[in-house]
Structure to design on (373 residues):
């Protein structure tokens, strides 16, 4: 598995990738910009100090000095990242401290030598006259405080990034756990209704009850296949919905008509598993069928730019004015919770009385597959 530059900046595996990914290139650009910003801030501070003390006219010299110091300090980030890399064996805090001290000392020596090599040519290009001499012990000592502060800043930045990454991972694990709990909450709810339907026909029509059990077994197998999968293709979701609708048809016979209208080309889009079944179940229990009348349910799916849209309509009387439809049952409320945890503000959910009669539930989810033709 290829490691991205963004992962290498935190150095989780102690290995730099051979080539950068787009996201890693952006992270590297942001990191470089941070060091350049520090150089500019130090340059501005030096110019202000000169202005306050009356020593003006050295702006170019300060710019070359501070920017060369900041840009050549960029490798320090990777030095610190390497020192704090994950270890395969346990090490003590004292050993970690010695490693940091050795890395800081080695870096400071190399940084001083690099500055001694690059600054004179840069000063010459900028038209600033300087006297070049071999680095002395005083030069190395003078650079140490700057490198200590830089080292501490890099170490703190890496710890903050690692903490942020750990926090995000914990939030993602929590969200996955909550999604799993919501899905488990829906399954007993559906299973109870299905078994209730079978029990109501077992003595009156054993043949129909046998058909219901067969349809239920098919649907449960499909449900078990998706137990560890958050998303399915819309094609797989529609197959599972057809199995559920076959169970409903076996129960209600000619009283129920379910129409599926799926736009060609949108089937490859991925949607949360078992997302349509509770919406259809809600339409069954709150539509005309609850009064023993014939009922019609229409399920539609189509694609929009960067989105996939799902819609379930029933021809019932709709919800009474002022009624909170989300608090009326498990199906809609659990679906809303699943979508909120899965997509945040990137989705849309609407449940309302339809114009012209009936009740409609519509979803607009971020597209995760190829756009429909």
């Amino acid at each position: 598995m290829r490691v991205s530059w963004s992962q290498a900046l935190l150095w989780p595996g102690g290995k730099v990738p051979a080539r950068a990914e787009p996201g890693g290139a952006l992270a590297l650009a942001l990191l470089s910009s941070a060091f350049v910003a520090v150089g500019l801030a130090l340059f501005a501070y030096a110019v202000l100090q000169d202005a306050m003390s009356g020593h003006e006219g050295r702006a170019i010299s300060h710019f070359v000095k501070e920017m060369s110091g900041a840009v050549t300090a960029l490798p320090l980030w990777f030095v610190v990242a390497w020192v704090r890399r994950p270890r395969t064996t346990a090490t003590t805090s004292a050993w970690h401290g010695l490693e940091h001290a050795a890395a800081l000392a080695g870096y400071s020596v190399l940084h001083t030598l690099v500055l001694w090599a690059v600054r004179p040519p840069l000063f010459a290009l900028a038209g600033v006259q300087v006297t070049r001499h071999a680095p002395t012990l005083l030069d190395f000592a003078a650079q140490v405080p700057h490198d200590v502060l830089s080292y501490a800043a890099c170490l703190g930045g890496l710890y903050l990034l690692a903490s942020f990454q750990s926090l995000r991972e914990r939030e993602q694990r929590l969200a996955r756990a909550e999604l799993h709990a919501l899905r488990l909450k829906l399954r007993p709810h559906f299973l109870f209704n299905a078994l209730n339907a079978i029990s109501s026909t077992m003595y009156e029509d054993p043949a129909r009850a046998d058909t219901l059990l067969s349809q239920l077994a098919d649907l449960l197998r499909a449900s078990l296949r998706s137990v560890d999968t958050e998303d399915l293709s819309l094609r797989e979701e529609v197959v599972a919905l057809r199995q559920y609708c076959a169970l409903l048809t076996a129960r209600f016979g000619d009283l129920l008509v379910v129409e599926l209208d799926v736009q060609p080309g949108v089937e490859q889009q991925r949607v949360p598993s078992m997302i349509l079944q509770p919406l259809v179940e809600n339409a069954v229990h709150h539509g005309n069928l609850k009064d023993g009348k014939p009922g019609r349910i229409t399920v539609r799916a189509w694609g929009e730019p960067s989105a996939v849209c799902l819609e379930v309509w029933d021809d019932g009387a709709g919800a009474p004015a002022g009624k909170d439809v989300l608090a009326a049952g498990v199906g809609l409320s659990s679906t809303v919770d699943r979508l909120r945890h899965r997509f945040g503000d990137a989705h849309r959910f609407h449940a309302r009385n339809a114009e012209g009669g009936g009740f409609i539930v519509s979803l607009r989810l971020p597209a995760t597959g190829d756009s429909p033709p």
Observations:
- Residues 338 and 344 are 10 Å apart (CA to CA).
- The two ends are 33 Å apart (CA to CA).
